[in-house]
Amino acid sequence: TVKVIDPGSAGATVLGEVVATPDRSTLVAVQTPQAFRASVLRAAHASGVDATDDAALVEAAGGRVVVVQGDPTARKITTVDDLEWARSQVGGAP
User: pTM for this one?
Assistant: First the structure.
């Protein structure tokens, strides 16, 4: 379950007090990598907006972002474990 918290009530072992439980029918986890037309993505990155991902940058720039069905094998390579997984998928050396 996803909860909305008030981080102002956080302590040493408490993340915050629950203030709401959002309606799940409007929530979706999005996958990285994300795909956009290169010109749209370049303009969004050039805008200087601070965002957590490319979709948020495009949104902030006024672009339209849609969600499509993802594929669990389309993984972002961020950690050494991700790289090892990718190598195993293409038969590369560890």
Answer: 0.62
43 touches 34 (CB < 8 A): no
Mean pLDDT of successive 10-residue segments in the chain (94 residues)?
Answer: 88 89 90 87 92 92 90 85 90 68
Q: Which two tokens stand for residue 56?
A: 């948020």
* Cα four-point dihedral sign 90, 71, 30, 45: positive
Identity of the amino acid at 39: S
| DSSP, residue by residue, the chain | ---EEEGGG--SS---EEEE---GGG--PPPSS----HHHHHHHHHT----SSHHHHHHHTT---------TT-----SHHHHHHHHHHHT---
